[in-house]
Write a structure and sequence with these properties.
Chain lengths: 343, 343
């Protein structure tokens, strides 16, 4: 039996929000694994704002996706066959499998995960790259100290929800900025943030003044734009601004909006530092063990927002830019095979 | 004999470039020193871009100059009389004496300087706050390491000229950005920078690519605006951007131009950090000793651009914003008494 692989390949570099026509959706025979390779059935695909950046030409922290290549994405799946000593059929693994049903992949490029410890989607969430981003961004880049006031934007998103919870775990005050009352209730009532600011309904600057009377010790930024500028006006002395992303800016056709209040860094002797989670790859296992321990102890919750199936990818990705997801947005591949045009 | 003090008092908060009418220039009797005070004859007044910020209302790293108060300025002078045990008539001292001829000043607020070690103006330059800013900004905030490529803007100015020279002393490559061929020759031929970029005549981004093929490890920014944005495009991995000032922005009537390329901090895992030299006050003496040693050994040069006299202050200050000074801009008070309307 020859397996058929449905996949999205990049067709053109988007201007502004990506459109369905920026990819081609096709069916191809699955390539048998060569020496050192494994064949993975992709079950969940991680949808991340960073994917927008990967579609652009030019130098960044990873090379752009080439035109004609399968769209890059992190995912989780099951090993179907293996020519690598580290993997066996039936293993559950995560890796950069791309937006497709089946990945013929280097065996050394995957991480084996234990489904008894946590459900598979959690390995793309709290125990995956976004959880790691929160963990290392806050503890290493942000140099979190007990007693800090931590503010995070996109607080109901995959990274933000973990940032606030780790801050609470470490004896800090956590304030989240999110869009809409549902998300605000979610982070306070379900995740235990001290306060939420609804940027759609409130003056963020004024709300930060009210919720953080001593100023912000850490501002963990996922959005850029006006919210970054508002946060800069409320920095405490020696504050650390962690630049993790700038989802408000990724689809702009005008130049990026630079933070006009950046001179607050001088006034407050503060720093603004960028981070890329890949740099911490050799510490992921250690961090995941600690995070899994917190989850088992009921101190850290994961939340996934799972949509499907594969063929809905272009629209599903836009949910991130419309702010429609709560928790980690994942694409379940299966529904495509069951219901989609590829079925 | 009652001494008469000529001084500039702040009359209004400027919009854009300060005008002469933003100060009143008057003559007042000198107040005799009270217990713990000294009377200082001010000889040189330090003119600094930061003074523009002190004229604005609102919170900054120091309180604003009050309307009606003597304009704040750092200066050097001679003690005429003393009611403080640490000072005696004839002592040469530096302190925040203001834009005036005579300062009745707390004795504990001054630093005694040794004219045998260096001429008095040097204590407002390499051995003064601007030299200290370069020293601590580069070594502490910027975490300079041997082999780094260091780029500094306003390179022919008071801070920039010292930044480049310390970088060279510490085994680094120093590239300066300055306006016009005279300044560019000055920093390369007289101060020993490896290269100069004339931002008035060259494409800064392209010139940075040529002069710093491995990227910038430290960018020491005194200007903000387009030059900061150009530097951000050329950061090396792990680069440190030191935010010392933003002279291009201080007189804008529009909002500050935020650095549109700030996401380079993420791509390059770089940091941008503000510094205020006052934070290092308890280490000034130690740094000044080291800097004086370098000067004595011929490894570090000071350059002052001395204009006068006191009554020319409003226009002299503008030289900083027109980029007319080479080296540390100082106002010699004396000429005012000799030639000016106050004579």
């Amino acid at each position: 039996m020859t397996l058929v692989n449905h996949c999205f390949r990049l067709a053109s570099r988007p201007v502004g929000l990506p459109r369905r026509s920026d990819w081609t959706y096709g069916a191809e025979p699955v390539r048998e694994p060569g020496e050192g390779e494994i064949l993975v059935e992709v079950l969940y695909i991680s949808l991340d704002p960073a994917m927008r950046g990967w579609m652009n030409e030019g130098k960044s922290y990873v090379p752009p996706v080439e035109i004609g290549a399968v769209m890059r994405a992190y995912g989780a799946g099951r090993v179907l066959s293996s020519r690598h000593p580290g993997s066996a059929p039936g293993d559950l693994v995560t890796g950069a499998f791309g937006v497709q049903e089946y990945a013929t992949f280097p065996g050394k490029g995957v991480t084996k995960v234990d489904p008894r410890l946590a459900p598979l989607p959690v390995y793309l969430s709290v125990l995956g790259p976004t959880g790691m981003t929160a963990y290392f961004g806050l503890l290493d880049t942000g140099q979190l100290k007990a007693g800090d006031t931590v503010v995070v934007s996109s607080a109901a998103g995959a990274v933000g929800m973990v940032v606030g919870q780790i801050a609470k775990l470490k004896g800090c005050r956590a304030v989240g900025i999110a869009g809409g009352p549902r998300k605000c209730r979610f982070i306070v009532e379900e995740l235990g943030f001290d306060a939420a600011i609804d940027y759609r309904a409130e003056d963020v600057k004024e709300a930060l003044r009210r919720h953080c009377p001593q100023g912000l010790d850490i501002y963990f930024d996922n959005v850029g734009g006006d919210i970054l500028d508002a946060a800069l006006t409320r920095l405490a002395r020696g504050a650390r601004v962690v630049i993790c992303g700038a989802v408000s800016q990724y689809n702009r056709t005008e130049p990026v909006q630079g933070p006009a209040n950046y001179l607050a860094l001088l006034v407050q002797r503060a720093s603004m530092k960028g981070m890329v989670v890949l740099d911490y790859a050799d510490r992921f296992a250690e961090a995941a063990r600690e995070m899994a321990g917190w989850m088992a102890a009921g101190k850290l919750r994961s939340r996934e927002d799972i949509v499907g199936g594969l063929e809905t990818f272009p629209d599903a990705l836009l949910k991130l830019f419309r702010g429609e997801n709560r928790g980690k947005l994942l694409l379940a591949v299966a529904r495509a095979r069951a219901e989609g045009p590829a079925g």
